[in-house]
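Entry 14. Structure prediction run on the chain below.
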Amino acid sequence: MSRGLRLAITGATGDFGRSVLSWALLSDDVAEVTVLGRRRTGRQHPKLRETFLDLSGRFDLESVTGYDALVHLAYCVEEPRDKRRAFQVNVVATRTLLDEASRVGVGHLVLTSSANALGVASCGTGKQYAEDSYPAGDQNPNNYYFYHKALLEHLANWHWANAAEGDMSLTVARPCYIVGEHFDNSGLRAFLAKFVLYPEPARSYYQFLWDSDLVDAYATILTKRLTGIYNIAPADHTSVEEISSINGSRLISGPLRLLETGADLLFRLHLAPFSGHWVTLGDPLLDSRLLRSTTNWRPSTSSAEALQRYISVATSPVSSQPQSYPTRQRKL
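Output returned:
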């Protein structure tokens, strides 16, 4: 690259956003970083400036006019009581961000989807889905995160279908389940519980990816200016049976509908951090051969190795984790 990128980042105070910010501040490929968000990062660096942005209301992107790239990582992931707020942040704000980034001349926008965009029906199949798979989460309005990520991909497809030559470049990163040294959320705490309740654990699968590998994927997307949808995942996957074995948890299998109902009840009683929205047969599995075949990106570990690494560095001992409720998942 002849000069460094002027890069904007939303969600830089989240688990993964902090990792992307650290990369950007250290990378010679990035000359300037503007963080857009409600909270300060607490970081000091000559490259860094911070601007207030609240995705729950009206906003503009005047502060990053003419920037080379914007990475959007600010989404409502941990389940809110008010699903309307999640829809505003995850879907409405994404539509506004697309329009605003184009209007102010951002050169390259990177949106973050999820394996869950492929829909509940894609869970538990054991099949890995490629980038051209339909985002069938649009059929799952009762699973808010699946639904929101599918709608995000529909917004991206609308942009690609209507973009003229010379318009803003757009990439959708579609990652699997991300773990990292400083990650902490209800999904990971549930996986580390002494007791794990799960429907059909032998055919409920996840793909775990270490956060630095995802940072490398975003860096590749930015520096090579890739466009389109890219799956980001290891080649293998890990069943819930294997997860429980790795962690030494006692695994209890139960009927899917019963566990959904139980999770909904516990959530309404404020006794669990998530509802039946998250009770599925694992995640849809991703085929990431496109990114691996067109770039030098490779995951540094297998799915099981990434999970084992996370367990080994988790700050809370297993004995202090939640004791027993249906496992949900963390997304970006």
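Confidence is low (pLDDT under 50) at residues 318-331.
Filed with the rest of this week's runs.
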